[in-house]
Amino acid sequence: MANMRPRWHLVRWLAWSDLKTTMSTTYLGVVWWLLDPIMLICVYWLLFSIITGRGDGYAPYPVFVGCAVVPWRCAVRSISRSAKVYRSYRSLIQGVAFPTASLPMSIVLAEGVLFVCGMAALTAASALFGVSLGWPTLQVIPLMALQFVLLAGAGFGIAAIGGLLPDMAVALPHVLRLLFYLSPSLYGIDLVAERLGADSLLFEIYSASPVAILFTAYRDCLWDPDWIAASQWAMLAGWSVLFFACGYTVFRTLDRALVKSA
Predict the structure, then answer these.
(1) H or E segment to which residue 67 belongs
(2) String of b and e for 55-67 (b: at least 16 CB within 10 Å)?
(3) N- or C-end of the chain: fewer Cβ atoms within 10 A?
(4) CA distance 212 to 29
(5) Is the dihedral of CA 41, 44, 47, 50 positive or negative?
(6) How many domains, in total, are found in the chain?
(7) Per-residue model confidence as pLDDT tens digits over 134-186
(8) Residue 144's domain spans which residues?
(9) What is the phi-psi region of residue 99: left when phi exceeds 0, alpha when psi lies from -120 to 50, beta otherwise?
């Protein structure tokens, strides 16, 4: 069972090695992690707000959509890379008795460091656009911590399933893209309530999803600062614990067979 316990010194070393690779493969290095979401935000701003005029009710729209794009990019990269982790480290896993649980954790940690940088830049952009930041903005810290726990659980589960089903890594980006557009990313939860009916069961299920809660909560911190409802905190904490427990259980169940077949 030693491979099921992540060695934290190894997790930190793998994460740092990952970050150094990210910074060394291009001239701008880690700056691209900031430029990429900025360019995505500009594209969505151009298409959804300037051309169609649909973003007029969500001014400043770049901050509004950034509260979805920045955390979502962290989630997508963490999940997509975790799906390939057994194949990426095949020779290492075959060669030595290796704590495999350290691999998805190091990916989530490395992406989490970049995520912190992205959220810091988004906070600065929010201030530049004239958003009145205050004490509610500090809620972004526990929000990011809960997202880290949620992604760690997802990383464990996706790593194990991706090792068992290699085709999953091909299909996953399409599933995640669909989930992004179905979530209140380019539009607000108010528009969904209007379409589905604020009192409908379907809207209650939709608004209780972890993605909808996270996007809305980040906007309560950086776009239209307000205190996040206790019920939202409770649901998000519940989702984070559930994802971690289920993901780690799947990982423990499949890991031994995956190590033998790696």
Answers:
(1) helix 61-82
(2) beebebbbbbbbb
(3) N
(4) 31
(5) negative
(6) 1
(7) 999 999 999 999 999 999 999 999 999 988 888 888 889 899 999 999 999 88
(8) 2-261
(9) beta
